[in-house]
Design goal:
The complex is a heterodimer. Chain A is α+β, with helices and mostly antiparallel strands. Chain A has two domains: about 220 residues, PmbA/TldD fold, CATH 3.30.2290; about 240 residues, no CATH class. Chain A has eleven helices and 23 strands. In chain A, strands 1, 2, 3, 4, 5, 6 and 7 form a seven-stranded mixed sheet that branches. A six-stranded mixed sheet of chain A has the order 12-11-10-15-22-21. A five-stranded mixed β-barrel of chain A has the order 9-16-17-19-23. In chain A, helix 4 runs parallel beside helix 6. The relative contact order of chain A is 0.14. By secondary structure, chain B is of the alpha+beta class. Helices cover about 20% and strands about 35% of the residues of chain B. Chain B contains ten helices and 23 strands. In chain B, the strands form four sheets. In chain B, strands 4-3-2-6-7-8 form a six-stranded antiparallel sheet. A six-stranded mixed sheet of chain B has the order 13-12-11-14-22-21, covered by helices on one side. A five-stranded mixed β-barrel of chain B has the order 10-15-17-19-23. The N terminus of chain B is likely disordered. Classes of the chains: A alpha+beta, B alpha+beta. Chains A and B meet through strand 1, strand 2, strand 3, helix 2 and strand 7 of A and strand 3, strand 4, helix 3, strand 6 and helix 9 of B.
């Protein structure tokens, strides 16, 4: 409890700042206060090789005037520090604090505390001893179960964040966030053959998460995959149908389409979907959702970084584009209503419209039916990361792939990269299986690195460019 | 003239009186051995949208990392942005707690060079221009870029920023380093569209010591030229090609595989090199690579690393042979050499390159084949930039499969490639360099000539 910083006593100080900003002529002033506590532990081979605790605090003050905004961040949470930051943000937009403040300000609403049941989360998290023990258990299991494993690593990170958002529209909300993630990686080597395989898990709002994690299952998965991929041939490049597995396979939708439905892209005009609301942009089998409240999911939030409770946003329904993801600036500049999607890495970034838990909904087929429908193609069992370019080109790497020949999985292949353009690929997702599952990930974009969930059932893409050798 | 040296105290360090405060606190807590790294920065930046300010931003950031060695000589670390006495005290307590989990098999120590004489960096920079002025510069740049060609419809990604930063290293044996510098940067990424065709995009980045020195006109012209050159695009056939990497692209690739000359990665078993690789030929004899943070073109450099070791020019690959590695104190001790000035600050200290200089060897100046990207008449792929390196590089395996921006060049006629990937193995690539051109080009990542590789897999259309 000692670590908690924000409470209703901030009311007077923040209200005064907001009133001052409004009196200077701002349309809206928003103050984001942050108090963080972070810890990470790394186990390599059979030792703990790094423990990295960190903590900090800071504020981000954003002023809107017309369609523009000025943003200032500072580590100084004193009244003087916040006043300087506000003055600087106002000054950027040509606004000055008046000598006397006569204007009317309705004031802040009642304190809305989303963290009433979360105040003990930090102290309920595993101790360094508990996390170290669990990580060493994982690297030991890799040693016991794996063959040719020259590098065995496991890592744990715990990110705790207390935030307070106050805005001149009355918003006065507090929340506590807790994100924990576990990563396990192995590098197998046999002569010139090498294969590296990793798995990452992540949750939000579950202090006891690490104790529930079963290292044996992870070790089995990694050892099975490295054994297969160590001697895999490089995939032959070309255009082919592909079946993408569930969970992290959802990175295809995240990169190929999700980013292009954020109002940060819509306002720039860099999305091919900018004028496609209520138009068909995907195969009729595709329904896609972005939401912020699946319990424990890595991208879940009680409120976004602008103080708004997240919604379930239907992005695509039966192939028809239904909604964009919007934040304050997005609503102001594109007219799309806020969806509780304003997110930022920390107080040093202004919030932007970002994804939360994003997934393609389950379909009616079994995964086997998808694979058996392909004569010659690629099965992507495990995906690496990906990205989307400024005109909608996406790419992502395949960590573990298999050829599909005559409707059956045959030999493993490595080195595949899937590339394409969003508007071309979405109509080619022709089959969705009934095994929707989610996976944790990190997404880097305009407002920094944030925790997200990607997800999908097994899906079939009729034709995609596979980069290889 | 800004002089970056170990006597120029930075404002933030004076303001928070870090040195005195840390001595007082470590004495109170009976911590005998400790060091701290501190940094502070002040940034302003602007973005514009069709002549209007889109976002104006300023930030002030402080960061301190404290390391302590406990009575068993185990090391612990904690970082914080809270530079108050309470924050520093809490950080020291956190570091002491973390030290109980310090790695007994490898404990970093102070750099033996942390008190050595340091090279001065002279960076000719002017005073910052302030947010209003940089907004006006960017507004004008955007307008000029849009007006440079009818197909350029917008500059969706743009920014102009000024940054002042300072860093300090201090340890309980009396080593004390201060450094400060400043830089300004501009990026312009234009989007161009022709009727019935897909949108195309390209851009340019320029960095200088100050906005006054920034080559804004050069950035506009380069962004315009590159974007227009990509308008005439078509798919490329999947095949193996002769490929010419432009300086940016080759530097991106070498940086992505810098584990080859990273001692930390070798010790950890994730490098493509091993403890016996020094002296071995890993590339064609024409290739030389140095790391040199002190190159005058490396804007915003500081003259010491996270452990207080002075930075200096280091030859990594000479005539194709691996001759040196990048080291921290701990890795250098393991290899029996001095640290090289490439360390961070941590319980386990990271190591990484600063600014690479890639060149053709003076001793082996005859290329396998003589190519020049300006007058070569044959067919080749010219790669301007590599994309998505975080996803497409398997650094510990040596393989890469990367989307790129580039052209198919045939008889000097350039045709932009719609979408394609280049794939290969870095070890084979380094041995298969056909030519290293004579002229080096300065980029924001380093300096390199054009490099020619034969028989690389390009995936485009089937």
């Amino acid at each position: 409890m000692d670590s908690l910083l924000f409470n209703p006593s901030w009311h007077t100080k923040l209200e005064s700042l907001l009133h001052t900003g409004k009196a200077a002529g701002a349309d809206l002033v928003e103050i984001f206060l942050e108090n963080t506590d972070y810890s990470s532990v790394l186990a390599e081979q059979d030792s703990i090789t790094s423990v990295n605790p960190a903590f900090g605090r800071g504020a981000g003050i954003r002023v809107f005037h017309g369609s523009h905004d000025g943003f200032v961040s500072t580590n100084d949470l004193s009244e003087k520090g916040l006043n300087i930051a506000l003055e600087q943000a106002l000054g950027m937009l040509g606004l000055q604090i008046p000598k006397t403040i006569n204007s009317k300000f309705d004031g802040l609403q009642d304190f809305n505390d989303f963290a009433i049941y979360k105040n003990n989360w930090l102290s309920d998290c595993p101790s360094l001893n508990e996390s170290s023990t669990k990580l060493l258990e994982a690297t030991l299991l890799l040693k016991k179960k794996g063959k040719h494993l020259s590098v065995r690593r496991s890592s744990y990170s715990r990110s705790w964040q207390e935030v307070l958002v106050a805005a001149s529209d009355g918003t006065f909300n507090r929340d506590v966030r807790l994100h924990q993630s576990i990563g396990v990686n192995a590098l197998a080597q046999d002569g010139e053959h090498r294969a590296s395989i990793g798995r990452r898990y992540g949750t939000s709002g579950i202090p006891e998460d690490l104790t529930q994690w079963i290292p044996e299952k992870t070790a089995d998965e990694i050892c099975d995959s490295t054994a297969v991929m160590l001697y895999a041939d490089y995939v032959e490049a070309g255009q082919m149908p592909a079946v993408l597995a569930n969970k992290f396979g959802g990175v295809i939708f995240h990169e190929a389409c999700g980013h292009l439905l954020e109002t940060t892209q819509i306002e720039r005009g860099t999305s091919p979907f900018v004028d496609k609301l209520n138009s068909k942009i995907a195969h009729h089998s595709v329904t896609a959702v972005d939401e912020g409240f699946t319990e424990g999911a890595f991208g879940s939030l009680s409120m976004d970084d602008e103080g708004m409770a997240p919604q379930k946003t239907i992005l695509i329904k039966d192939g028809i584009l239904k909604n964009f993801l919007s934040d304050r600036a997005g609503e102001l500049r594109t007219g799309n209503k806020r969806t509780g999607s304003g997110r930022r890495q920390s107080h040093t970034f202004a919030a932007a419209s970002r994804m939360r838990n994003t997934y393609i909904a389950a379909g009616k087929y079994s995964p086997k039916e998808l694979i058996s429908s392909v004569d010659s193609g690629l099965y992507c069992k495990s995906m690496g990361g990906g990205s989307v370019g400024p005109t909608g080109q996406f790419n992502f790497s395949v960590e573990e792939g298999y050829l599909i020949e005559n409707g059956k999985l045959t030999k493993p292949v490595k080195g595949a990269t899937l590339i394409g353009e969003a508007q071309d690929i979405m109509p080619r997702i022709s089959m969705c299986a009934n095994d929707l599952d989610l996976a944790a990930g990190f997404c880097g974009s305009i407002s920094g690195n944030i925790n997200v969930t990607v997800g999908q059932p097994h899906i079939k893409v009729d034709s995609i460019t596979v980069g290889g050798r | 003239m800004i002089v970056n040296n170990n006597n120029s105290k930075s404002n933030f360090i004076e303001e928070f009186n870090l040195k005195d405060e840390i001595y007082k606190l470590t004495t109170q807590k009976s911590i005998k051995k400790w060091d701290i790294g501190a940094s502070s920065s002040n940034d302003i930046s602007v973005q514009v949208d069709k002549g209007n300010p889109k976002q104006l931003k300023a930030s002030q950031r402080n960061q301190v990392t404290v390391r302590v060695w406990n009575k068993e000589d185990r090391i612990g670390i904690t970082s914080t942005s809270d530079l108050s006495p309470i924050g520093l005290s809490k950080a020291l307590d956190g570091a002491l707690l973390a030290s109980e989990y310090g790695n007994t098999s490898e404990t970093p120590q102070f750099s033996p060079l942390a008190k050595d004489k340091i090279n001065e960096i002279h960076s000719a920079g002017s005073k910052g221009q302030g947010i209003q002025k940089i907004f006006e510069y960017l507004q004008e740049a955007e307008e000029k870029l849009i007006n440079s060609h009818p197909a350029i419809e917008s500059v969706p990604y743009n920014g102009l920023a000024e940054t002042n930063f300072a860093r300090m290293y201090l340890n309980s044996e009396g080593a004390l380093r201060y450094g400060s510098n400043q830089q300004a940067s501009i990026y312009l990424y234009a989007k161009a569209l022709e009727s019935g065709r897909k949108p195309r995009s390209s851009g340019s980045i320029k960095i200088a010591n100050s906005t006054f020195d920034l080559d804004i006109q050069g950035c506009i012209e380069e962004a315009s030229l590159k974007t227009i050159r990509h308008l005439n695009y078509e798919p490329v056939k999947t095949d193996k090609y002769l490929v010419c990497f432009m300086p940016d692209a080759f530097l991106e690739l070498i940086n992505a595989f810098s584990n080859i000359f990273n001692a930390r990665s070798i010790i950890d078993g994730i490098s493509l090199s091993n403890m016996d690789s020094l002296g071995k030929k890993i590339a064609v004899p024409q290739l030389c690579i140095h790391d040199n943070a002190l190159n005058p073109s490396n804007i915003g450099a500081l003259n010491f690393d996270g452990e207080g070791t002075p930075v200096s020019r280091l030859c990594l690959i000479d005539d194709g042979a691996l001759v040196n590695l990048l080291h921290s104190e701990a890795t250098a001790r393991k290899f029996g050499v001095n640290p090289t000035g490439h360390a961070g600050l941590g319980a386990k200290v990271s190591v990484g390159p600063d600014w690479l200089e890639i060149s053709k060897s003076n001793n082996n100046c005859i290329n396998k084949l003589e190519f020049n990207s300006k007058d070569y008449l044959g067919k080749f792929i010219l790669i301007e930039n590599l994309n998505a390196l975080h996803a497409g590089v398997k650094a510990s395996q040596g393989s890469f499969s990367l989307p790129f921006d580039g052209w198919l060049v045939d008889n000097q006629e350039m045709r932009s490639i719609e979408a394609a990937t280049v794939a290969g193995d870095i070890r084979q690539l380094l041995q298969n360099i056909q030519a290293i051109e004579d002229t080096q080009h300065v980029t924001h990542m380093g300096i390199s000539p054009h490099i020619w590789i034969d028989n690389l897999s390009i995936t485009g259309e089937a």
